[in-house]
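RECORD TYPE: inverse folding
INPUT: structure tokens
STRUCTURE:
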């Protein structure tokens, strides 16, 4: 055998060995290598780089809005616990609870819940969750890394914007993170796309209107029931309609605003909407002293309408979008002539929660309607 033959044989053997090693490595990775390849990460809303469990089947939600997001992603089958406040309040007024309260009732209590109340690590530990979805507001009570160590479960922190508002950038980010964590990425993308289609539709219907009515939204809830002179600036459904409230000119302050009747009378809104969550309070005030109300043209002309409350343990996104279509129908009937507000509301609730909820809302609050008879 000459030298050339020996060299060629050696090269062939080396190539065969290399191929075999590559094949073995590819098809038989070590357990450590396999573990690394399966690891998933997210950056949560507290800026933490969180390594997610390989398998997530047991989850809990703590703090305002977190259970709502889980329901929006159709992941209630993973829940193993519930906050006490969710059970005490009953379902009415929180879109997700109205859809899934019967499932919640059988879950183990994992802590008090509600605004201003700290989580209970001991109760959380008792249900052995794989993943805890925690509202960023709860970071004031406990560090998420500390909670993670105490409960021996991964914690992700989410925040989809200030209560009572529609921050779609933050909402989309939270849905995306949660979709990854719960293996509901397709569902998260589908819902995000649907929300964008609603925003685009409302904008396209109202973005080129030159003459707009003067509008006021009264009795807007904020940390409990509020009177007629309580409002919000800007008001999210109106913002989706490219329409201002007269409260937007009251001061430079944004958020929840308390006005006085003198300002309302001087501004004379053409149309008034009332948050039906506080309608009884407004009716009692009217019956006690109707004079200031009757100095408003909207009350005298029967241009007073009820909308569904959407701020309860953070923002009911679906309800706020449904309100926007009804308000658009009242303010710009020619632009919304193809819309039946009740049917559109049920479409939205179905997309978010898989159930038509408008009739339940209507039974609880009165639904979309003119309120002129209530102030006769």
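DESIGNED SEQUENCE:
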């Amino acid at each position: 055998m000459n030298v050339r033959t020996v060299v060629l044989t050696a090269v062939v053997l080396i190539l065969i060995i290399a191929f075999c090693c590559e094949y073995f490595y590819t098809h038989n990775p070590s357990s450590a290598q396999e573990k690394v390849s399966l690891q998933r990460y997210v950056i949560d809303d507290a800026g933490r780089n969180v390594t997610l469990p390989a398998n997530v089947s047991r989850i809990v939600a703590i703090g305002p809005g977190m259970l709502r997001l889980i329901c929006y992603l159709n992941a209630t089958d993973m829940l193993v616990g519930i906050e006490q406040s969710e059970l005490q309040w009953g379902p009415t007024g929180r879109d997700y609870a109205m859809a899934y309260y019967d499932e919640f009732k059988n879950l183990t209590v994992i802590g008090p819940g509600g605004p201003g109340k700290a989580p209970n690590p001991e109760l959380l530990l008792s249900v052995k969750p794989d993943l805890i979805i925690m509202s960023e507001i709860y970071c004031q009570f406990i560090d998420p890394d500390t909670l993670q160590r105490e409960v021996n479960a991964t914690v992700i922190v989410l925040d989809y914007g200030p209560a009572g508002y529609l921050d779609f950038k933050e909402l989309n980010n939270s849905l995306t993170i949660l979709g990854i964590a719960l293996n509901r990425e397709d569902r998260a993308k589908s819902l995000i796309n649907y929300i964008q289609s609603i925003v685009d539709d409302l904008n396209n219907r109202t973005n080129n209107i030159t003459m707009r009515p003067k509008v006021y939204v009264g009795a807007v809830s904020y940390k409990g029931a509020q009177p007629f002179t309580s409002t919000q600036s800007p008001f999210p459904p109106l913002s989706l309609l490219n329409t201002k409230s007269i409260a937007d000119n009251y001061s430079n302050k944004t958020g929840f605003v308390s006005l006085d009747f003198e300002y309302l009378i001087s501004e004379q809104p053409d149309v008034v909407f009332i948050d039906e969550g506080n309608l009884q309070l407004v009716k009692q005030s009217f019956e006690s002293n109707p004079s200031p109300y009757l100095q408003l043209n909207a009350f005298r002309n029967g241009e007073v309408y009820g909308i569904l409350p959407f701020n309860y343990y953070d923002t009911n996104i679906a309800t706020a979008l449904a309100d926007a279509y009804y308000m658009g129908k009242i303010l710009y009937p020619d632009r919304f002539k193809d819309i039946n507000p009740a049917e559109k509301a049920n479409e939205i609730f179905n997309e978010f929660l898989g159930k038509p909820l408008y009739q339940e809302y209507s039974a609880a609050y009165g639904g979309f309607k003119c309120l002129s008879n209530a102030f006769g």
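NOTES: Confidence is low (pLDDT under 50) at residues 30-37.
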